[in-house]
Amino acid sequence: MGSSRFSRSSRFPASRYLFILLAVLLGIGAGVFLHDRRIRRHIAPSLIALSGDTIKSPSFLDPRPAAMLSEAAPSTRPALKADPKRGARAEINNPAPPAARPLQSPVRPAVTLAPAGTADKLLADAKAKSDIGELSAARTILNEPLVSGRLVAPDTQAVRHALMEINQKMVFSAKPYPADPFEEPVMVESGMRLQKLANQYDITWPLICRVNGYEPTDAGARRIRAGHTIKLIKGPFCAIVNKGAFRMDLYLGGLPGESGSTYVTSFPVGLGKDDSTPTGLWTVELHNKVRNPVYYSPRGEGVFKSDDPKNPLGGYWIGLKGEDGNAIGKNSYGIHGTIEPESIGKQSSMGCIRLGRDDIALVFDMLVEIKSRVLVEP
Length: 378
Prior knowledge:
The protein is of the alpha+beta class. Among the domains are: 118-233, no CATH class; 237-377, L,D-transpeptidase catalytic domain-like (Beta Barrel). 34% of the residues lie in helices and 22% in strands. α4 (118-131) packs antiparallel against α5 (135-147), α4 packs parallel to α6 and α5 packs antiparallel against α6. The longest helix is centred in the N-terminal third of the chain and has 41 residues, at 2-42.
């Protein structure tokens, strides 16, 4: 019995000591864990903030539970999509599209008008460049003072006319001008389609045909002979309609007030009766650009088929969507042709912008859905 009590009493103290040691170790580990967690909660987010990084801190640095993180911020991991061939799920990059931002009219900085007669020297300098074949340099000389609005009215008209002649060669002909930042030569490959090229350069395939001298037939519009080098214009084109002057100005590289804006050409226009053409910024509306459109009269005059000589749209309709200024919320406005050429230069329409027969055909080929903007100014 004595031996039994002795062995029992000798084992109990060892067990107690082992239990106490284990508890102390667990306590120390818990303290280190909590201390480290406090450091990560308070210090790590501060370091991320100081770095200027706008990315969310990783979940192991954020004190919120993982469930809260998944609701508070979108995941940066690629989305998962089923692979129909393999019957498994494969990762693909599928970022969420950015939120659409409303378009705004460009703001032109205030400028000091140049003295009358400034155009004489500009035109002389531009002609000197043109005479040696440097049309791009000639255009640059004339473009900046015109687009900036520094020229007085008579000088503006003279410079605009000179630029129209230069751009007739640079933009609307097949002759290449390597120094032109708005053109690019492309070697046609087998099976290449003009519509695909047009989409890549923010232009229309009829404009490619027009510039390169091709007939814009269905066959020629979609395929051209492989091995040829064609000239492509880097769009999109934009337009400004000056109501006071009854004039539409076309630009590449953006509207005046935006970097790179380059004047191209101008056309006379007809506008809305009683000043009914709304000012403001418009875009060419998607799926609302039609060649040979049917006209449904809002005046109760009936329906005019596309081949009806009484169709007032003159063979073309470019629908506009209001984006800024007085244009916001407006619909049913557009740019079209006319069967009343005498209305050009007057307020005669129900608010739309009219162009002459040849002019509307060219503008129709220049403006692109969604990408092209039209700014109507007083």
